[in-house]
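Why does residue order matter? Because the sequence determines the fold. Keep that principle in mind as you read this record.
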Amino acid sequence: MMAAPARRERPALRPRLAADFLREGHTVEVPLGGSSMRPLFAPGDTLRIRPARAADLRPGDIIIVDLGGQLLCHRLVYVAGDHFVSRGDDAPEHDPPLPLDAIIGRVDVPPSPHALWCAVRALLR
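Structure:
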């Protein structure tokens, strides 16, 4: 009996399609897969994401980063030169610096006292 060929892990189709649509200038809606953005967003919440470039953003915005087929939803902390640093609201540490062109979108967050509290809490950690 022959062993089955090893399967290469491929990025999930939904994040790849969402990234392609964002790069083409389309707004997308996708479910959040993780919990690093608690308490603002819970796993499974549907996020409305608009295309964005780093020049369109400011610290505190919730951004979508393309990590080679996986999408990361975190808060923009700061931009330094040609890199940026982000962090999940519930993450213990900042993410490593990434190139600005990895940013492909910004999450629509309706203004509310809760959203403001989450932003202030996240940026002061």
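The chain has a mean pLDDT of 91.
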